[in-house]
C-alpha cells in the first residue's frame, strides 16, 4: 500500500483542474480541515498566485515578507513560509505569478517543489497542494511532487475536453518526471441537486471514468462562499451543516482508499 511506499513520510495530494472556479481551493481547505479533525497532521501548500487558500485561512497575502515564490525561485526552506492556522499553510502571494518565468531557465525547474517538500515530509501525514487554473510550470511542480491527484469537477459546466487535456499532461508527467502519480479520484462539485443537468453530468463522468469518480458529491450551498470570508473552513464555520459533512464523507472515502 501507500504507507510502505512512503515509509511514514507524508502522502502528497495535488488538487488540480486547469479550469477555474471548480472548487479546487475549497476542496483543499475543507479536506485539510476534515483530515485535521481526525488527528492527522496536514500541510496545505498554496501554489496559486491568487492566494485564495492563504486568504481563506485569514492570512493577508500582501502582508507576507516571504512566500512560495521564494521557496521555488530562491530555494528558501519551506518552513519559513508556513503559518499555523486550522492546519499548516505554506503561503502564496501575488508575486508567485512571476515564478514560472523566473524558474523557466533553471535546471530541475519541474522538481523545485518536490525538493522543498523533502525537508518537511516527515512532519506531516498529508501534504495537500492547491494549484492554479492552468497546466503551466506551477501545476507541473505540483504533479511532480504528488503521489495522487484529486480532480474537482464542476458539474454545471462539465468540460470533458478539459479533463482529457489534464489526462494528457498527467501521462507526460508520469513518463518524464514522476512515475508514482495517479488520479485518486474525480470529485463532482457545485452539484445542484434540483437540476437534471447535474445528474447528467455525473452520468457522463461515470461513463468515462468509471470508479475513479468518487462516491462523495459536494452539493451547492452558500456556506462555501461565506466561510472563507471569515477566514475559516466550513467545518469550523458551520460544523454541523451539510457542507461540513460532505467533506467529512470525502475524507472517509479518501482515507479508505489510502488504507494508511
Ligand atoms: P477554484 O479554486 O477551482 O478556482 P474555488 O474553490 O475558489 O475554485 O471555488 C470557486 C467559487 O465557488 C468560490 O467562490 C467558492 O466559494 C464557491 N464554491 C466552491 N464550492 C462550492 C459549493 N459546493 N457550493 C457553492 N459554492 C461553492
Ligand atoms: Mg483556487
TrEMBL record:
Domain AAA: 13-183
Pfam family, any one: AAA_31
SUPFAM superfamilies linked: P-loop containing nucleoside triphosphate hydrolases
Origin: domain of life: Bacteria
Role summary: May play a role in septum formation.
Record family assignment: Belongs to the ParA family.
Name this protein carries in UniProt: Chromosome partitioning protein
Source species: Thermoleophilum album
